Amino acid sequence: MTERKLEGLKVILTGGSKGIGVHYAGALIDAGAQVAILDVADGAELASQLNASQQRDAARAFHVDVSDEAQVKTVVDDVISWIGDVDVLINNAAVFATLGDAKVTDIESALWDKVMAVNVRGPFLMVKHVAPLMIAKGRGKIVNISSGSAYKGLPFMSHYVTSKGAMLGFTRALARELGAHNINVNTLAPGLILSDSISANQEHLDTNRDRVVASRALKRDGFPEDLLGGLIFLCSSESDFMTGQTLLIDGGSVNI
Ligand SMILES: NC(=O)c1ccc[n+]([C@@H]2O[C@H](COP(=O)([O-])OP(=O)(O)OC[C@H]3O[C@@H](n4cnc5c(N)ncnc54)[C@H](O)[C@@H]3O)[C@@H](O)[C@H]2O)c1
Known about the structure:
The chain is built from 9 helices and 7 strands. The protein is an alpha/beta fold. The chain has a single domain, classed as 3-Layer(aba) Sandwich (Rossmann fold). It has a 7-stranded parallel β-sheet with strand order 3-2-1-4-5-6-7, with helices on both faces. Helix 4 (109-137) links the parallel strand 4 (88-91) and strand 5. Helix 1 (20-30) crosses helix 9 and helix 3 packs parallel to helix 4. The longest helix is centred in the middle third of the chain and has 29 residues, at 109-137. The protein is globular, with a radius of gyration of 17 Å. The model has no long low-confidence stretch (mean pLDDT 96). It binds nicotinamide-adenine-dinucleotide. Nicotinamide-adenine-dinucleotide (NAD) binds at residues 14-15, 17-21, 39-41, 64-67, 92-97, 118, 145, 147, 190, 192-193, 195, 197-198. It comes from Sphingorhabdus lacus. This is SDR family oxidoreductase. Belongs to the short-chain dehydrogenases/reductases (SDR) family.
């Protein structure tokens, strides 16, 4: 990506240390942003590679469990100490690629609660502690990551699909509530994307890959690179009059 549509913007990206998030971090930085990578997984090496490639203080990794309010509050303060401001929040962290297939009759309640805690409470806590900064300056963008599975249903992943459905309602409620403060809230919903992490989950690929590709208008696999144009659009001024919407990037599997 050569055009620097996010020049000077300060971005918080959750779940940026692994999988699709690594590609998001690289694209955001290529577009001119400074990116705080928040993750339970270590992102220090990724941040130093990105800084070396850009020859600037473009990325820093912060350890946080987004489901823990005390940690979220502290990490937002730490990000502010680093870059002083937040223009864009991307809620990408989720329990996903590590989930095995499970019948709804077999899912342990503790696992259900964990998926909801990370995938739903996490984005809520991030917004709770970042939105005040945006409200104070009367500007900001929030991008929640959902999934095409919230539209289509996906067997043996009812905990995950339910959590991603919640992002659609969360986005609409926030768009109404925060619009008065000139804060745009939108959802990016990818179809099945062959990130490094999901590619390591052979069971998930065996259950879903062929069926998903067959369902698409564009008969091919999806890759992290397919999402980058949409993400940058939702973070940039090009989407300034768009809020409460879902951008579905799935090769034409849903809603065509
Ligand atoms: N890959 C796909 O096919 C696909 C499709 C639709 C939506 N998505 C969504 O895209 C996002 C990224 O998916 P991915 O394929 O890269 O999967 P992934 O499981 O590799 O990515 C999740 C990231 O979140 C981090 N994370 C997990 N728990 C956390 C916590 N408690 N606090 C902070 N960080 C935490 C992980 O360390 C990881 O970096 C997820 O929100 C996922 O639901 C993925």
